[in-house]
Amino acid sequence: PARWDPCTPIRYVVQPGWIPDAGRADLAEALRLLTAASGLEFLSEGDTQELPSRDRQSYQPAVYGERWAPLLIGWVPAASTDVGLGGGVQGVSSSVAVPGHDGASLVTGQVVLDATHRLAPGFGPGTTDGEVLLHELAHAVGLGHVLDPTQVMYPQTTSSESVFGAGDRAGLAALGAPAGCRTAPSPG
Description:
Elements: E1 10-15, H1 23-38, E2 42-47, H2 61-64, E3 71-76, E4 91-98, E5 105-114, H3 129-140, H4 166-175
Parallel strand pairs: 1-2, 1-3, 3-5
Antiparallel strand pairs: 4-5
Helix pairs in contact: 1-3
């Protein structure tokens, strides 16, 4: 499967325009949980004014230098983007894969939460920002949906605690550090 290189930190930027009060804390905790389950490391490059878009360029040397654009994470009103938020869709993620000599590598992506309909902060029971962040970040690193409602990767939020289930953890291990390094091709 396409995956990030677990031997290189995944660089990310945050679109802070509509971030909720607990957004940064929830994002930090979601990334901590994702790192614990996968071995993937995340490195913040601060804030950006870039808005999520279906047409986001994977390589933006004028903005991010001579490398792949970092993972873009943000809370954005559905009307401010074309990524498919709204109508009950609380979060969307996408990743970009490029072919390489040892398989496809994920090199950038977007994780977008709907800022129009605020969710409860944290990771407790019920529909929370934490649960949606965990779900969308796991998509961004390569996991798909599952049919088991006890897993974070179930396609709908549930009333359970927001923690990765055994199936989620097995998938993240298969895509993360236990799977070994995978050098991504350089852009250009």
